[in-house]
Design goal:
The complex is a heterodimer of chains A (145) and B (98). In chain A, strands 1, 2, 3, 4, 5, 6, 7, 8, 9 and 10 form a ten-stranded mixed sheet that branches. Chain A has one domain: Beta Barrel (Cathepsin D, subunit A, domain 1). Chain A contains three helices and ten strands; from the N terminus they run ββββααββββαββ. By secondary structure, chain A is mainly beta. Chain B has one domain. Chain B is 42% helix and 19% strand. Chain B is built from two helices and four strands; from the N terminus they run βαββαβ. Classes of the chains: A mainly beta (145), B alpha+beta (98). The interface between A and B is large, with 52 and 47 residues.
């Protein structure tokens, strides 16, 4: 069981969060801990620029240069379209009592722009599909089972 | 995107990898505790801005409405990114529709 949390810095409506670690073998080969928003409307997990730069440690010049990212897709959301880089990713997960798991898949890294720089990173269905979600706002509890 | 390897959750059996994962989580927990304690006071001081806080002391060392200038301020002070936590202090109501 993985434990998440409702953002204590958020407003009076629920912003469900969970920490997961990221290891990007070809980009940033070290484990970085990311606070994701749990997004059941997202097909894929997306890393936004603040976390890409400050948490994962991708240099700003590298991140802003599309030529360094051979695989790109255009993601569509309520806010519009967003070009994202597609990279191989490992997701490190922490269960109770120190039990750890890894999911190998991919992640989208949003191309930096003024529209994306302040957005949170979101954990999408490529990861969430492996769990049963329990989100209880009344109890302020979140579990991935 | 078909050439990527995908797997479901697999237990980590390599002790070195497990230790690295748990250490990253430990660092994340420390950051969460910092922001849980200080977010409300900082958002009043720096609404709608990026804030960089020193990981050792918790002191705010740079503030800017945008990420690039924030990093320039850190660089000018000789502060590496791995010495700070950076957070955008969102002002609500500010609706997120993801």
């Amino acid at each position: 069981m993985i434990t998440g949390f409702f953002d204590p810095g958020g407003p009076n409506w629920p912003i469900p969060r969970v920490r997961a670690n990221l290891y990007l073998p070809l980009v940033a080969p070290r484990w970085a801990s990311i606070r994701f928003v749990i997004d059941t409307g997202a097909a894929m997990t997306v890393l936004h620029p603040t976390q890409a730069r400050d948490d994962v440690g991708i240099g700003p010049a590298w991140l802003a240069d599309p030529d360094r990212w051979p695989r790109r897709v255009t993601a569509h959301g309520i806010g519009g379209e967003q070009v994202c880089y597609v990279v191989e990713a490992e997701y490190g997960l922490r269960h109770e009592r120190g039990h750890t798991q890894v999911i190998r898949d991919r992640i989208l890294i949003a191309e930096p722009s003024s529209a994306t720089e302040a957005l949170p990173s979101v954990l999408g269905w490529n990861v969430l599909q492996h769990f049963r979600l329990e989100l209880d706002w009344a109890q302020r509890s979140i579990h991935l089972l | 995107m078909d050439s990527f390897v995908s797997s479901g959750p697999e237990d980590v059996v390599d002790e070195e990898t497990k230790a690295a994962i748990l250490e990253a989580f430990r660092q994340g927990d420390i950051e969460d505790a910092y922001w849980a304690e200080h977010y409300q006071e900082l958002v009043k001081q720096y609404p709608g801005q990026f804030v960089a806080a020193d990981r050792e002391t918790g002191t705010v060392v740079a503030v800017d409405p945008h990420l690039d200038p924030l990093h320039e301020k850190l660089e000018s002070q000789g502060i590496a990114l791995d010495r700070v936590w950076v957070r955008y202090l969102r002002v609500y109501p500010d609706y997120l529709i993801l």
